[in-house]
Amino acid sequence: MNRFLKITGYTIRDQMRHKSFYVLLGLCLLFVLMIRGCYSGQYVVNGKPLDNITVAWHVSKIVFQVIASGMFLIVILLSMKIFSRDHEDGSLVLFLSRPVFRQQYILGRIAGTWFLCLVFMFILHATIFLTVWVKTGTIIPGYLTASLVCSINLLFIAVLVCFLSLYLPDFMSAVFTVGILFVGYISDGGYQILNSEILKTAVPSASPPALWRIIYPKVYMVQAYADSIIGQSSFNNMGPIHPILNVLFFIVLITTLMLVVFNKKEI
Amino acid sequence: MIALNSVIKKFDTVTAVDNITYRIEKGEYFALLGPNGAGKTTVVRMLLGFIKPTSGSIAIDGIPVSDPEARKRVGYLAEHHMIPSYLSGLEYLRRHASLMGLVGKYALLEVDRLLEVVSMKGREKEKSAAYSKGMKQRIGLAAALLGQPKLLILDEPVTGLDPIGIRDVRNILEGLRDDGVTVFLNSHFLSEVEKTCRTLAIMNNGKILVKDSIRSIIEDDETLEDVFIKYTQKGK
Fold this sequence. Notes:
The complex is a heterodimer.
Chain A: H1 2-17, H2 19-35, E1 43-45, E2 48-50, H3 52-79, H4 82-89, H5 91-96, H6 102-136, H7 143-165, H8 170-194, H9 197-202, H10 211-215, H11 219-231, H12 243-264
Antiparallel strand pairs in A: 1-2
Chain B: E1 2-11, E2 14-24, E3 29-33, H1 40-47, E4 55-60, E5 63-64, E6 74-77, H2 89-99, H3 104-117, H4 133-145, E7 151-155, H5 163-178, E8 182-186, H6 190-196, E9 199-204, E10 207-213, H7 214-217, H8 224-232
Parallel strand pairs in B: 3-8, 3-9, 6-7, 7-8
Antiparallel strand pairs in B: 1-2, 1-4, 4-5, 9-10
């Protein structure tokens, strides 16, 4: 446990040493700061002026999803090179020539990257939360809780990219991960649209989703669930399993497979 | 200290290590010699648990090498020692010390002492990207010596070192030998092996051809080079 925590700490420090981390952080903060202007504009919809609170509410919800999805890219970029870089720069030998279990190494590397991304995303979400509070005096309930809920997706992506990078070149593991996420977005996004209140009245008898769609990693659904926490609205789940449980199941499954594969790997 | 029992390692159809069995006793200063591709590095990698034998077993101090506890008092120096370019020599050594469980003031003093030993004091805060091959090798040796190891596994330790560096390493290793540390040396530098080692094995095509004390292997009118050539060229 102690060595796992040490490797987690080293991973956070190592990731923060790379210039690309600061470039990404800078770009994200710039984006968030640019959004600030949206909260003080005058908006008119159907001839009626909108109050600041309504605007802030909608903008914040959209930005929440943009940040949560944008973080996918960042976690992919930070995770895809973990093993190949460690192999090339001698870090792998550094860790494994010491009394460190391979499991401790893998879990430490992933936990460190995930924790860094979690904090990164939380800072961005908290910035929006505080901006809305300062600009409109309104606190959006559940905004930060929703951010923590979405962090489960980041862990899933980190685990998936790392697992794929054991078999594929780094770039290909990133592409495959994006592909897996994309299929889920289409499947779950389509389901959400078809089950929205407006479409339900227009298409009352939508057929139930296929089994693979119910089992497929519910990354989009976790975001939809987070959105329902912010909006304090109902959540249309696909199938009987909560999306958080679904994603957690895949995290455990892929991590177990990765540990088995890495244990057999020759260094 | 080290026990290899009927160890076979195959890479697809190639047998890199072919049924070797030997023991290295505590305090033994042992050299494994052999031409390129003989299987020496494979043995070293198996000793560290980096690769698993196809069959057979390897243990250090009675603990199977698959258990990381076997590496608790083991120092390792790789042939082309690599240090992450974003770490300084000091950070690298502190990381090693921490993973070994050395903490607090003792760890700092130990790192400091070893930087003196390998003549890297004054350069320890520079990023390793600025280090020469020989400097990296010195830092690697310091890392291997951390925590007063009972066993040192050295894979071509003098690669990249200048003559002064080679002499320094020899002096350090002789000091360790006198302190009773077990040393497993994998080297091509026959003259160094002849000067420092007490026992050796010559390996070729994955097999141990001979294992004995240097005095018994080398006859009066021979050098280690002659013996090495005699065994490795046999049957050619």
